[in-house]
Amino acid sequence: MNILILGGGGREHALAWAVMQNPKCDKLIVAPGNAGIAQIAECAALDIMDGTAVVEFAEGESIDFVIVGPEAPLAAGVADDLRASGFSVFGPSKAAAALEASKRFTKEICDAAGAPTAAWARFTEAAPAKEYVRAQGAPIVIKADGLAAGKGVIVAMTLDEALAAVDEMFSGTFGEAGAEVVIEEFMEGEEASFFVLCDGTDALAIGTAQDHKRVGEGDTGPNTGGMGAYSPAPVLTDRIAERAMAEIIRPTLAEMARRGTPFQGVLYAGLMIRDGRPRLVEYNVRFGDPECQVLMLRLGGQAFDLIQAAAEGRLAGERVTWADDHAMTVVMAANGYPGAYEKGTEIRGLDGLPEDSFHVVFHAGTSETDGRIVASGGRVLNVTARGKTLAEARERAYAMVDRIDWPEGFCRRDIGWRALS
Ligand code: AMP
Ligand code: GLY
């Protein structure tokens, strides 16, 4: 098969790595890709937000199957354009991508499906929103309705913070995404991510993970796209995963199908777990980045068979073959991230690193100039390892980190602390 992956981060490198191990893959193109992906697949310059351009490209390259990595092209309807032209595609329609693109939509689906989630209300003006906040009290959570690159959520611990957050949302900081605001009950507990493949009707759980969103050790400092992740998440036990499937995921899929907008792709459920009970924090309609990196390392080549079964409505007969293992990824970011950071600094020492089914360095933001690998983004490398225990995976990951010669980059040294302590 000729396979096309849309995207160019660590998530797409991990997907490409898994696809390349599947014997069905004859040719793999990743658009736009990055310097790490270019070592295992063909990379192509392509505007992945432009459905017409993507369809033309896929036709020209005789593509048989497309995997859409990030949420933005999904929310823009690129998967619909491809399907309308006869391509087999992994990823939801624009209508179903609203599960990530609109927080209000997700809350309405949860209510209709009876899925446990935080109590909520929606507002289009500041005054009634503030009135609601005063009535509810703090802590409370203020969210821009639309996609805001992970920045549209403010967890306010005090009333003053909450009122300021409402002002900020309506001041236009988040553009269109903030025109509507969802205010939610603050949920206590431990967070974990649950990844489920969906074919519109059936669902197959493919793993759990936890990530570290804050830039600083001990989970402090500003939010980032994720500084590291590990799988499985010990807090998300089999029992809780079954509850999440029965109480949250399956009712959501049924409600989406009932509305005529079945969900096909990967549903990434952020869960808040307390006293053995999962509640939904949010849905994403794509793999997490960097959570995908640990999932792919654990699944290997079978990941593509499952992805294809989801796209073709054949999940009912599928099973995941699990090794009893653990994986960890450590994100190396450019100094200054998530604030302003330098681009174009050289990364050395990657060549001598082990590369096998236990060790892979996925590239997130790199490019190649004159044979040198240089940093081209905020999050730059995802140093990923697998082991019999999480401690072993961690040891292997940091042993690689220590051999990478990149003074202009940094990482957190405590990835996995919650699970390991
Ligand atoms: P998001 O950008 O939607 O991933 O949300 C960012 C983070 O805000 C989540 O990962 C949670 O840690 C936190 N959060 C969102 N909603 C709630 C809630 N209702 N209660 C507690 N924490 C929340
Ligand atoms: N790592 C968080 C995300 O992909 O949304």
Here the CATH topology of the largest domain equals D-amino Acid Aminotransferase, Chain A, domain 1
Tally the beta strands: 23
Give the rounded overall mean pLDDT.
Answer: 95
Rg from Cα: 21 Å
Bound ligand species: adenosine monophosphate, glycine
Count the helices. How many? Answer: 13
Globally, the shape reads: globular
CATH superfamily of the largest domain: ATP-grasp fold, B domain
Q: Just give the CATH class of the largest domain.
A: Alpha Beta
Name the poorly predicted regions. none
Q: From the coordinates shown, what is the CATH architecture of the largest domain? A: 2-Layer Sandwich
Q: What is the distance, rounded to the nearest whole angstrom, between the alpha carbons of the first and last residues?
A: 45 Å
Count the domains: 4
Structural class: alpha+beta
Helix content: 25-40%
Q: Give a short account of the largest sheet.
A: 9 strands, antiparallel
Q: Proportion of β residues?
A: 25-35%
